[in-house]
Amino acid sequence: MRFWQQLRWKIIAGHMLVVLVGVTALSLASELLFLRSVPTQLQNQLTALTQSDSPQIIQETTTIVLDTLYRDAVSRSLLVAASGAILTGLLTSIFLAREILRPLLEIASSSRRIASGHYNERVAVPPSTELAMVATNFNQMAEALEHVEKQRVALLSNVTHELRTPLTGLEGYLEGLIDGLFDSSPETFAQMSQEVRRLRRLVDDLQSLSRVEAGQVSLQIDDFDLIDVVDQVMRQLKPQAMDKCLDLVIEHQQPHILTHADPDRTAQVIVNLVGNAIRYTPEAGCVTVRVTTTESMASVIVEDDGIGIPAESLSLIFERFYRVDHSRARSSGGSGIGLTISRHLAWAMGGDLTATSPGLDQGSTFIFTLPLAN
Ligand code: ADP
Structure pTM? Predict the structure, then answer.
């Protein structure tokens, strides 16, 4: 940070200049006007007065003349000095005011425009360090607002899109029934019921998403055995794995791992991870769930030898509605919200959720960590 770019030094230098010019002008003016002119004028007066014969009058006149001359010289010196100081002060303050006010006024008018919805508004960064900091921070804030606004618009369009799919399905079945194209058979109603379930799941997911993103999810934090929860989830998902002839394996070295978190939310995250692993692993594949510990954390590692995730998608799969392969994921019922909710839940419980994959068709690994109980 160069000191001459700092506003504080500019202000100090400006005012010092005013004082310096004032003092110099005052000294010079006193020297020139008072010290030089007074003795000469005084001499003239005294010469004129020598012709008078009253010593008292001479003394009085001398005092008056000296006093008048002194006052006159000082006031003239001050006038010159003050004019110089005022002029310099005026020029420096005009310069400083312009330098400070121009960016501030620009920020004021830009913030008004942002408030009225123009989120692409940015201000020019001035050279003064402090003002440059204000302008840069303002631009960063505007960028963040623009990002949030883009996310809001994207969310709205994603929600509409996701709702449209099951609604179109339902509409098709209803029209088919009305036109007599479909029989009112149990199969038709089963298909309609599936679309309704899809709608219900989407609405439930959206509600959970809005809660976790707003940090409003209620957690029942307690000490519980993580191995127990993983076992329950494995039992719950076993039929799904068997349908695809998948090997569902659980590995852990300790019989019990006491964790400090919400057991139901932990189960929810593991269901999402193991459910995904089953969904994105082709028949006869293998899904392994390993439970390990480090010094202060427990990890649930869900590994599969399925379709894998390309490197460019690894950081995106935790964003709402993101799916690597839209058609494949949608046909299998995924809305792309599950991992977003899971990651927020992991964070809320003091843990984390990350993913790795060597690439497409090379399997994926999800690591879910939670704090150990003390
Ligand atoms: P979805 O309901 O679509 O599965 P998720 O948020 O759970 O939503 O997952 C987001 C996307 O991440 C999925 O659509 C899929 O493309 C990818 N994904 C998640 N888990 C796996 C996995 N085990 N293997 C491959 N891809 C996965």
Answer: 0.69
